[in-house]
Design brief:
The structure is a single chain. A hairpin with a 2-residue loop joins strand 2 and strand 3. This protein has a 4-stranded antiparallel sheet with strand order 3-2-1-4, covered by helices on one side. The chain is built from 3 helices and 4 strands. By secondary structure, the chain is an alpha+beta fold.
């Protein structure tokens, strides 16, 4: 997604997430149950699904705070904390390790 501008739409069963990019940077994210960074964390829980990328003007939505590299690290940090704290809905430790 290095320099892409547009919107990624992902589906997994009834779950839907949209992430908008401007010049490769995430600018907005939402899902049926969350917005912004929380939507990205929810999306990162998925183990399967399909996605499409629509290039062009990104869809405006709940903003995500910060550059892509920071967002990726923050999402990983939150997933790690959820596993460590055994928060419901978090992936088991074996599945979370890559």
């Amino acid at each position: 997604m290095a320099e892409l501008t547009g919107t990624l739409r992902a589906r997994s069963g009834p779950r839907v997430t949209s992430v908008s990019f401007l010049g490769g940077e995430g600018v907005a994210a939402d899902s049926l149950d969350a917005e912004g960074l929380d939507a990205l964390v929810e999306f990162a829980h998925w183990t399967d699904g399909r996605f499409e990328f629509y290039s062009g003007e990104p869809i405006h939505g709940p903003a995500v705070p910060g550059p892509f590299d920071w967002l990726l690290l923050e999402v990983c940090h939150r997933l790690d904390q959820m596993v460590r704290l055994e928060i419901p809905g978090a992936l088991p430790l074996q599945a979370a390790a890559v």
